[in-house]
Design a protein that fits this description.
With 150 residues, this protein is mainly alpha-helical. The chain contains five helices and two strands. It has helices spanning 2-22, 30-48, 62-84, 90-110, 122-145; strands spanning 51-53, 114-116. Strands 1-2 form a two-stranded antiparallel ribbon.
Length: 150
């Protein structure tokens, strides 16, 4: 559990503090939406039994909460920053973030931090990352049209 807290929450938020100083609007707009997406999807997957996060505490919500509010939220914040504030082609931002998050998930599978049920596999996880980042990208477009960004 300490590993998940440090790597999945503390380290990402160290970069999040830096990002907040550069673009605080992200933390009032897309970061909460990213956190909500992560919490809903992870909790649904855990409660349905599609995957589990090791070492699962007795309070089921805590099994992925540090990841949901840590690495997933900060990844969404950096994704927003790269799309809105940097001159990076959107296709590369999508490839890097979807590939990066899927790669981290693959690493977590290898070290057995997470386990999949027989009805779930890495391809489905990859599709969830694609869907999640597409939703965030759609929200970014709406916020840009509303002149919230940049």
């Amino acid at each position: 559990m300490a590993f998940i807290i440090i790597v999945g929450f503390v380290l990402p938020w160290l970069t999040g503090i830096y990002l907040y100083k550069k673009a605080p609007k992200i933390f009032y707009t897309t970061a909460p939406i990213t956190a909500l997406i992560a919490v809903v999807l992870n909790q649904a997957g855990i409660h349905i039994g599609l995957w589990e996060v090791n070492h699962m505490p007795t309070i089921v919500l805590l099994d992925s909460l540090f990841l949901d509010l840590g690495i997933f939220t900060i990844a969404g914040a950096w994704f927003t920053y790269m799309l809105v504030y940097k001159s990076v082609k959107p296709i590369w931002v999508y490839i890097i973030f979807i590939g990066g998050m899927a790669g981290l998930e693959g690493l977590a599978l290898l070290v057995e931090t997470i386990n999949y049920d027989h009805n779930w596999n890495f391809f489905y996880t990859f599709l969830m990352y694609v869907g999640g980042f597409l939703i965030i990208g759609w929200i970014i477009k709406i916020l840009t049209k509303l002149k919230v960004f940049p």
